[in-house]
Amino acid sequence: MKDSRRTNLLIVISLLMIAVAFAAYSTIVMSWFKPPPRPGSVLGSTAASRAEDEERLSSARKNFRAHLLDTSSHLRLSDALWRAGRPVDAFYVMYAARQLFSEDSFRRAHTEVVLGAGGPADSMRRRLEGLRDASLTIPVHAEIAREYPDTPEGRESLDALSRLAAGDENAQGGESVRLARTALEELHHDDPKHPGKLAALGMAFFARGDFALAHAVAAEALAKNPNQAGAAQIMGALALQQKDVDGAMSWLAASWNRNPDDLYSASKLAQIYDKRRADAESALPFYLALYRQNPDFSDGSEPVERRIRETLDARRESLLQHAPVEGLGARFALDDASLRAEACLRAASFKDPRWIDRLGELLDDDAEIVRRNADFALFEIGKKEPDAVRSHREAWLGSDKPLVRIRALNLFADLDGKNTLPLLSTALRNPNPAIRAFAKVMVLDHYFAKLPEAAKLRALYLAEERDPGALSLLARFPAR
C-alpha cells in the first residue's frame, strides 16, 4: 500500500514537472514571435501605441469579414495582426490570401497595403520609365532616395544606386559607377543618421570587394553614432566575409533591432540560425519578416514560404503532442494560429464533445487553417456524437457571421449529405456574395458535383450571379 501511494505521488510530481516545463517552453517560444521594437523607441511600443494597434486590428477584422472577396481586406488584416504582435497569424492570413486570389490582385494589394507604396514617391519613380541609359536614372534615384528614403520606392532607389556603385569604374559604363557612388556619398553626407543611405554606400564598397573602404565608412559612422544601424549592417557583412559567425550575428542583430527595414540582416540571420546551426525556430522570426516584405523571397534553396510552413508544422506538433484533452481550452485561445490549429487537431483525435462550443467559435477565426481544422474536429466529433453536433446546426447556419455560415455549411454537407442540399440552395441566394461564392466552390462543387439536382442549382446560380468579387473567385476555382 505504501509503495502504491509512493508510485502515485511520483506520477503526480512527474505530471506537474511536465506541465511546468511545457508552460515555460511555450512562454519562451511565444516570446520569439514579438516584432522588434519600433525604430527610435528603446522600450518598444507604448501603452498608447498598443491601444492604437488593437484598434487597428479590431477595425481590420470587421472589414475583413464584411469584404471576404476583397484582396485588400485580407492584407489589411494580415498587416494589423503583424503590428499587434501576432506575426504567425499575420503569415497565415497572407498565405491564405495568396492562395485565394489571383497573383495580380494579391501583388497590388500587398504593394499598397503592406509595403505602403504609392503617392509622391511612386509618381516620381515613373520618370524612370523608358530610360535606357543607367547614368540618366541616377539623378532620379538620388532624388527619390533623398526625398522619400523610408518608402518602398526610396529603398528600391537606394538598392539601385548601390548596385550601380558596386561596378568597375574602369570598365565600360564606368561613368555610371562614379555617378552612383557620388550620389550615395552625397546622400549620406546630407543625412548621416539614416541607416539605409549609409548601408547602401558601404555595401556598394563591400560588393565590389573593397572591404577596407567599407570598414572605414562603417567605423567612421560608429565613432560618431554607436547606434548607427547601417554601420552595424556593414560590419556584419564584413564579419561574415571573414567567417566570424559570432561577430556577424552580433552586428546583424544590432542592425536588425534598430532598423526593421534591413532585410539583408534578417536574411543573413535566418540563414545562420537555420542552415549553420540547425535552429529553424530561432530563424523563424526573421523568415516571417522577410515573407511579409517579399512573399516570393528565397534563400536560394527553397522559398521562404515553404520553410515557414515546415517550421510551424514541426513546432506545433512538438508543442502539443502530449497536450491532454482537459488542457485544450487554453490552447484554443493562444495568440498563434499554428497552435490553435493544432489544438483543433488534438480535439479531433479525442472526439470529446465538451469542446463543441469552443470549436464552433473557431469557425470564425482570422486564420483559414484554424477554421478548417475546427471544421474537421467537429466532423470527427459528429461521427461519434452526431446529436451533440447537430444541436448547433440551426445556430451556426443562421449565424450573422459569414465565416461561421460558410464553414457550417461545409461541415453539415460532410456529415449529413443530401439533407444539406436545401440549405445549400438557400445559401446560393444569400445577399452576401461571399457566402454565395464559397457555398458554390467549397460545398456544391465538392460534395454534390454529380447530383442532377446540384447541376440545376449550379446552372441557376451561375446565371444569376453578378457580383465582380464572386465572379472572380468562381473563375479562379471552376467546377471540375
Your description of this structure?
This protein is mostly helical and 480 residues long. The protein is 73% helix and 0% strand. The chain is built from 27 helices and no strands. It has helices at residues 2-31, 47-66, 71-83, 87-100, 103-114, 120-125, 134-147, 152-165, 174-190, 195-207, 211-224, 229-241, 245-258, 263-276, 280-293, 304-320, 328-331, 337-350, 356-362, 368-384, 386-390, 393-397, 402-416, 421-427, 433-447, 452-464, 468-476. Helix 9 (174-190) packs antiparallel against helix 10 (195-207), helix 10 packs antiparallel against helix 11 and helix 11 (211-224) runs antiparallel to helix 12. The protein is elongated. 41% of the residues are buried.
Main sheet properties: none
Q: Tell me the β content.
A: under 5%
Q: Could you state the order of secondary-structure elements as H and E? A: HHHHHHHHHHHHHHHHHHHHHHHHHHH
Helix percentage range: over 70%
**Structural class assignment:** mainly alpha
Mean pLDDT: 90
Number of strands: 0
- Low-confidence spans: pLDDT under 50, at least 5 residues? 1-44
Distance between the termini: 67 Å
Basic shape: elongated
Measured on Cα atoms, how large is the radius of gyration?
27 Å
The total of helices stands at 27
